[in-house]
Amino acid sequence: MLDVKKIRGDFPIYQSDKPFVYLDSASTTQKPQVVIDAVSTYYNAYAANIHRALYEIGEKATDAYENVRLKVKAFLNVPDTHSVIFTRSTTESLNLVAYAWGQKFLKAEDDVLVSEMEHHSNLVPWQLASKKKGVNLDYIPLADDGTLDTSKLGDLISSNTKLVSVGHQSNVFGTVNPVKEIIAAAKSVGAVTVLDGAQAVPHMAVDITDIHCDFYAFSGHKMVGPTGVGVLIGRTELLDKMDPFMSGGEMINTVTMKESTWNDVPWKFEAGTPNIAQVIGLGAAIDYLQLIGVDAIHDHEQSLLKYGLEILSQNKDITLYGNAANRGAVIPFNVKRVHSHDLAKFLDTDGICVRAGHHCAQPIMNHLGVSATARASFYLYNDKNDIDQLAKSIEKTARIFA
Ligand SMILES: Cc1ncc(COP(=O)(O)O)c(C=O)c1O
């Protein structure tokens, strides 16, 4: 187990005497002082635009920003630095692919394959693309244990399949999907592959070279980094062939009154003044996670998951959802007679933060036959005592609603 007391010392939010049991890291994570400092030092000491300022602080800001590209490359074993594009979020990264790749390369009657487990951010962009281009949108079905039923993959993928986009780890069940199997099936018919890594990168060692997908998306704020920064990793040859997603600013090479030519990848996809401070903060987040050790964080979360499942399953009023063998530290549940929104509000009176709702995954809720669930999710700053407090507060709330 990690030294949680020491880790909490790194996070200003844990320095208050108020009870604080934060179990919503799948939604967003708390920030260590080093990340906050990296952002504020940029604003305090070298706030300047990048790629254009011909003075010292501008050069320093440019170096700091571009250096994070190298950090992402090393962190995720990305083959080419030019493959790393900074966006605002996973959502923007996935929209970038759906628009910039989809608009250009999808044709009427092509098939796009997603899954029934997707976060809306990896579903709605494909629904829009399919409507616009007359593409058939199909999905890998969800099995009752919260895994994907990949036995149907052979029927679902054909020479008509042009793109397959699935989540690496589910934000609802924590299920780690068999992405290499799905990618191999997609590649066997020449389809482009996209992974939504929003829940994977913060919690496990991800190796892009080994996974061998065409596009991979994730967000900084779910990995102790700032909000407002995401990453899209794309295969450089594909990025070269795509048109820009947004235009203006440094994404051009030349502009006349009639037409423009584009900057090289990745800058072609970074229109306007980028989110400089947030990218620098993401770099500090990567450094911090590497210092603690991503494998150590993963092991710590796995022992919390095991303990959480053990403790919560002892309460007969609790329904737990999902039972994947390969699973991250996310526990969706409901409590008999208590709507999850009420539960979350009651838990909050004990200083416990959990998510309640459809988790931006309404098709999963439909599959489960519920409108919402509560969800506890764990990260490096959680310990078993957090889970004990959660269990106690759930029991107290259930008694109120009895
Ligand atoms: C699996 C998954 N995909 C995409 C997203 C969207 O991330 P963001 O809101 O940072 O764009 C989330 C956020 O909860 C998520 O869990």
Can you summarize this structure?
With 402 residues, the protein is of the alpha/beta class. It has helices at 4-8, 33-45, 56-76, 90-105, 124-133, 153-156, 179-188, 208-211, 236-241, 276-292, 294-312, 340-348, 362-368, 384-400, and strands at 21-22, 84-87, 111-115, 136-140, 161-167, 192-196, 215-219, 230-234, 252-255, 260-262, 318-320, 330-335, 352-353, 355-357, 373-377.
How is this structure best described in words?
The chain is an alpha/beta fold and 402 residues long. The protein folds into two domains: 4-30 and 294-400, Aspartate Aminotransferase, domain 1, CATH 3.90.1150.10; 35-290, Aspartate Aminotransferase, domain 2. It has 14 helices and 15 strands. The strands form four sheets. The chain has a seven-stranded mixed sheet, with helices on both faces. Strands 11-12-15-14 form a four-stranded antiparallel sheet, with helices on one face. β9 and β10 (260-262) form a beta hairpin. Pyridoxal-5'-phosphate (PLP) is lined by residues 89-91, 119, 121-122, 167, 171, 196, 198-199, 219, 360.
